[in-house]
Amino acid sequence: MKKKEMLWIFVICCFVTVVSCTVTIGIYEKKIQKTKEEIEEDSITATIESGRITPSTKMVYEYYYTEDGVTQTLEDVPPYFLLDMTLEDMKKVYTDWQIISFSSKEVVMRKTLEAKSNEQYIIGEKNGYVAVFYKEPQHGIILHEITNTPLSALPLEERERLLEGISVTGDENLYKILSDYTS
Questions:
Q1: d(CA 45, CA 20)
Q2: Distance of alpha carbon 159 from alpha carbon 68, whole angstroms
Q3: I want to staple 110 with a disulfide (CB 3.0 to 4.6 A). Which of 62, 70, 131, 142 is the partner?
């Protein structure tokens, strides 16, 4: 008889323990979910604020090219027709853009293009080393990077080509040509 009573007491204790653990876990999961929702709400309000575009708002335009994974970014002042617009107004005007963030200080917009980028580079020489320059319509030629490859380590023909400048379109072509000079 004592063994049966002990067994029942053990079973009841196990049952009570399982039920209380289940309830505790459920309460804990609800608290975690509530905390996650609060964090998400905070991050959304941090990137999408109410406000209007002013003359001092920085406009950031991102162009993402799917075929080569390049994102080109342009920063500008807002055009006159955007002044005093809200987020909802912007969504109506820029239906084919994704608005990443919106505030009176900065608006970041992204457009996805099913194409290759048209980034232009010139491989040339800077301080005796092989260098890469951006070729931009607005700003001209801008230094991008200087490699560790000295011009003196290359054959005369290649040095002459680099001194003239080698035009390259796209990141993929740039990396192919640079690998020839740096390996």
A1: 38
A2: 29
A3: 62
